[in-house]
Target: Zinc-ribbon domain-containing protein
Amino acid sequence: MRTFHCNRCSQLVFYENVRCERCESLLGYVPELAEISAFEEAGEGRWRSLHPRAADAVFRQCHNYAVENICNWMIPADSPDTLCRACQFTRTIPNLGTPDNRLYWYRLETAKRRLLYTLAALGLDVPSCQNDPEHGLAFEFLEDSDDGPRVMTGHDNGLITLNIAEADDAYREKVRSAMGEPYRTLLGHFRHETGHYYFNKLIVNDPRWLAPFRKLFGDERADYGEALKAYYRNGAPADWQASTISAYATMHPSEDWAETWAHYLLIVDVLDTSTSYGLALLPDDPSEPTLTDRTPVEDASFENLMKRWFPLTYALNSLNRSLGMPDGYPFTLASPVVDKLRFVHRLIAAVGR
Ligand SMILES: [Zn+2]
Ligand SMILES: [Zn+2]
Ligand SMILES: [Zn+2]
Model:
């Protein structure tokens, strides 16, 4: 993700911020500009943007910003909407009568907004269920109950369901460890599930993409229930790293696709962030991993992205080890995985606006 600044005092601010830490201006994200803007009060709950590209336009806070404190997006003041574009995607929110659920809801929406930013930056069309009831994307954040069936995180025909327990760090870490996964995050879940959505939207009905897809990932018509049972019975093959990005990706071609798609979004977001900060790697020994290229990720070739990605991951993991944290990037990319990532890149380059 790119960097943002307060329009009043130039302080570097994060995408998630609601106030400038230095000058205390209200901050909000304006999706029409793809920018965080600083605002000044314009009366009656309205806020005038100080962003140079906004031409003094007046906005309101999303209801979930002004009242619920879980959003930071803005709506044009004359819009009839009460929820911002990001919040409109959520069809079911957690029961706020339960302690902790508001925090979980905040974490879920925050991860979802970052996902939406990346999809938009890649030029991918993301209609919400509100704008396009038939083909739009919707989210349900559900909770396990004592009497009902367990809530499964997954995707079904544009509806992404997430078990809100995934927003509980202790629960998520327990599952991650029990499943032997090196990486499990809310953002990763959202990226993965949108992979299933875009498969239906972009590949399954287009022979130009479906044939090369099946060559790389296998036949997605393979029995899913059988594959699931076999995976939980036998686990992944010992040499799964030679062909897939994760153990889970070996379960079924559809899961291999969703895992690869999610990984591509991860690479693009991280590279975009490091490029925006002007991060460079200039070791004394130039034969060591070096990074100086600053081509915007949306203009970069796949080869260019990969060339920059490897040095960055060395530095990223070394920094994490110095922090006493596990590797930030606990993956290796075997060449069949790189080929699959290249397919995702080509698809997005072809269909992105
Ligand atoms: Zn400021
Ligand atoms: Zn909102
Ligand atoms: Zn999946």
The chain has a mean pLDDT of 96. Residues 4-82 form one domain. The longest helix spans residues 253-276. The chain is about 40% helix and 15% strand.
